[in-house]
Each structure stands twice: as C-alpha cells, then as structure tokens.
C-alpha cells in the first residue's frame, strides 16, 4: 500500500493506494498517529484504494474517534467494493463519505 | 588413602565439569573437532610431501636436519587422528589435545624452516576461535607463545640459519666449501661455538621471534574477539530457539482451548428432531478471531451466533474469547437479539482501549414455530434457503460493529423458516478466500456451492462450500479464518428424512473442528 499525505494549514489529505489490510493497516496507523495532532480537517482519498479489511476498518474507526474530538473527517472517492464493506459493517453510519 | 583417591576423582570430575561445554555448544564443539582433524590431516599430508621432496633433493635442506623433526610431526599427526576417530570427536578434552598437538606439530616445522614460516605460529590460535571459547583461545595463545619461543631457540642453532641476523666481528673471514652461504657463516662461528650460538639465540629472539610474536598477538586478539562474538551469537540463538519452542507449545495449547470453546461435538442435539446444526471453524493461524456459537436458551429457543473479530492471531483470539462469553451470558438470561448486541457492545466498549471490534450476527429461533428473530452488527449477510427454494442472500438490516462505539442500538428483524429451510452463516474468510492470482472466491461462487448441495444435510452443505473454496484457492496460502455454520429447520410436524442423513450421522458422531477430507 502507498500512503500519500498532503498537509495545508490544519487540513490533511491522506491518499491511499492498494489494499488496506492486516499487513498494511499498522503502517497507516503509525502514519496517522504521527500526522494527526493539530489537524482539524482530515480527508481520506480512496480513489486508488481497492480493499479494506477489518484491520483497516479498525484504523479508520480510531481516526474517526480522534477527529470527533478535534475536528472532522471525510472520505472521498470510495469504490463499490469498499462502499459495500462500509455498508455491511455499519461503518457507513459513523463515517462521512462524500 | 581413601580420602586421597576421592580428592583425585574430585579434581578430574571438577576439571571435566569445567571444560565440558554447555549443551548448546556441544554441536559446535563436535564440528570444530572435525575441522581440527581435517586441519591435522592436511598438515600431515604437507609434512609427508616435504619429507618426500626433500629426500629427492627438491629443497635446499639437508635430509639429516629435516628427517627427525618432520617424521616426529607426522607420527604425532597420525596419533591425534586416531584419537579423534576413537572418541568420535566427542571427548571433552579433545579440543585441548588438538590445540597442544597442532602447536607442537607446527613448532617442529618451525624448527626446520625457522624464519621462513611465520604464519605457522598463527594457525592454531586462528583455528581455536572456531570453538567460540575465549578461554580456549587464550590457552592456545599462551601455549603457542611458549612452544614457539622454544622452537625459535632450538631452530636458531639446529635449523636453517638466518644469515641476516648474524653479527660478526670486523675482519672475520669466511671460507666457502661449496653448498649454502649459511654453511659458510656457520663454519665461521665454529671458532667459538658457544659464543656464536649465544649470539644466534639472542638475535633470533630479538629480530625474528619478537616481531613474529607481535604479529601473532594481534591475531590472538582478533581470534579472542571472534570466539567471544561467536559465543554470544550461539547463546542468543539458543535463547531464541527456547523462546520459539515455548511460544509454539503455548500456541498449540491455545489452538485446542479455542477449538474447545465452541460447540464441536456432532450431532450437536441428537435428541432434537426439529432441527440440525453443524459448524466448522478453521483459523488461518494457530488461533483466530472468528467464532460461531449455538445453544438452547430454553426448550423452545435456539440461539445462533456468527462473529468475526477485527484482525487475526492472538490479539483477535483473546478478544474473541471475551466476546463469545459476554454474548452467551447476555443471551442465556433471555434477552432479545437487539438487546443482547446493545448490552454486549456496552460491556466491551467499557474496556477496549485497543479499539478492537467484532462483527456479530445473532439470531434466536423459536423451534416450535420456525420464527427467527435476528440482529446484525456489521456482519456478512446471512444466506437463507426457504422451503423448496434456492439459497439466497438475505439483505438484512445492518447495525454498527460491536465494540466500535459506545451507545449503539441494534435493530431486530424477523423471518419465518418453513420446514425444509436452511440458514447458512459465515465470516468474510469464505467470500474473500483468495487464489494465487489475488482473485476472490466471491459470494456468487459461494451461492453456487450451497445450491449444489441445497437439499443435503448440514454436514454435506458445509463440505460442498469448503470443497469449492479449496478448489478455487488451490495452493495459495489461507489468509483469513474460515468459519461456517449451517442450520436445517425440519419443523415440528415430525422427522423429515433428509437424503443421506442417517449415514452421515453415524459417519461423524464425534466430529471435531474442520471438515472431513
């Protein structure tokens, strides 16, 4: 998985490419832990993300909880497979998907 | 007298205890002993070759000075080789004997060729580092220092004379009688043999042995370092091996404990004719985060659970154990599915700093009526076959995963199972099983496999799905836990014979985890 970050002011855009699964989720977790302090507007770009496993969902949930406390979090360009995963797991209810 | 022998025995056994390596070094030592034997063999062959070539006049050395020390060296080599073989390279004293032997053999050659063979002095200490024992390397260094000093002294007067270090009084004349320059120099010293020899010994020690010894001491330091580092590496490796073995033992036990946590003796309810239930759990690693559960809440209510904890391995397994127990405890006191999930969510969220969560499908079947009330906390869609129909995905209402966020409520829904209906529950390991080219098995293939066996027993239905998954995945590594449950509702109107049911029930009365091959 490739993690791209772009920070401007207190807005952070994180674009992911590949699969967010058991193997790659810890990378994203570590990247977010380092980057999130001070961020008020977190945007995930999933245009090139193919798949999210439960380990990946856990990282997204953790990010959502962090952002609930310090700003907002949005997810963009979610493909059909991942939309289905979000719907099935009920994550659509707690995430902001644009 | 008695006391004396005891003391002597005490000394030897104490020495042996001191010099016997730890168990973890035994293999290293035997290998090193074999290497020592190989070095001896090579040295012996070279010595014998020198002897033969000297006999044919290939070297400028007189046979008289070469024969005696070299033949002794060859004999020593042979004795050592025989000893090595006799004790099968295993005796605790062998390494010391090899060191002593090698040093003496090389010192004998040093006596003959004196200043020409500086590197011989370094060989034993270099080899000693292979034992990863700094003590042995220090022992070899000291012994080499002493023995080569003796060989230098002996060689200076009896071996090849080093004319570069001979000091002469002014005006000394030498007469060549043919042969070597060294002979002429030696003859010139004959006038005062004792003084000449003393000068030779002094100069050899000062100009020959000392520089050689300085180089040797550096090689000793390097060898000591190699021995110490090698020892550390062997010890570290040993500790890691012990740790790995311990973890492996624990995981084996954990696998069995986890497999026993879920109902796994079939038929599960031999005295109930209204329904049949069968499930399998196959973790990708030793332990997994998937689980199923089924139990009677009371005589008329069967609770079914299928769940999948986020992540894999030991963390998922720990979380799975807690989730399973909390769910079952909530279900057993007669709560409704939605309430069970809400209360379980609250209980888990209160102690969940690692933010793990679990997807759960939980249903309670009223056995007398076929009425099934269920709630889905972010789990895969269940698959239902109604009556004579096909297996179809049931797109049920989905709530959020359990443990994800406090205060979640879960909606219930109700379906009615007619006699002959079947319910198939699974975790995402089934549709997301992946082949070597990263293609997923998918829901369509899963439905096809289900419908192929739709009227068969629960055991055969799961076998059909597992067979299809295995056929699809082939030799790709199983990446996710694979867990399935199938319920067959036969109704209360009386036992409905299912094709092959009786045969199967008797085939697999005590079936454990995993489908039969």
The spatial strand order of the largest sheet of chain B comes to: 1-10-9-6-7
CATH architecture call of chain A: 2-Layer Sandwich
Mean pLDDT of chain B: 88
Helix content of chain A: 40-55%
Largest sheet of chain A: 4 strands, mixed
Number of helices, where a helix is a run of at least 4 consecutive DSSP H or I residues of chain A: 4
Question: Could you give me the name of the CATH homologous superfamily of chain A?
Answer: STAS domain
**What is the CATH class of chain A?**
Alpha Beta
List the secondary-structure elements of chain B in sequence, H or E.
HHHHHHHHEEEHHEEEEEEHHEH
Which structural class best describes the helix and strand composition of chain B?
A: alpha+beta
What best-fitting shape of chain B do the alpha-carbon axes yield?
Answer: rod-shaped
Number of alpha- plus pi-helical segments of chain B:
13
Instruction: Provide the helix percentage of chain B.
Output: 40-55%
**Total number of β-strand segments of chain B?**
10
Largest contact between protein chains?
A: A-B, 15 and 21 residues
Q: What distance lies between the first and last C-alpha atoms of chain B, to the nearest angstrom?
A: 74 Å
Q: Which stretches of chain A are poorly predicted, pLDDT < 50 over at least 5 residues?
A: none
Q: What shape does the CA trace of chain A take?
A: globular
* Total count of strands of chain A: 4
CATH class of the largest domain in chain B: Alpha Beta
Q: Which oligomeric state applies?
A: heterodimer
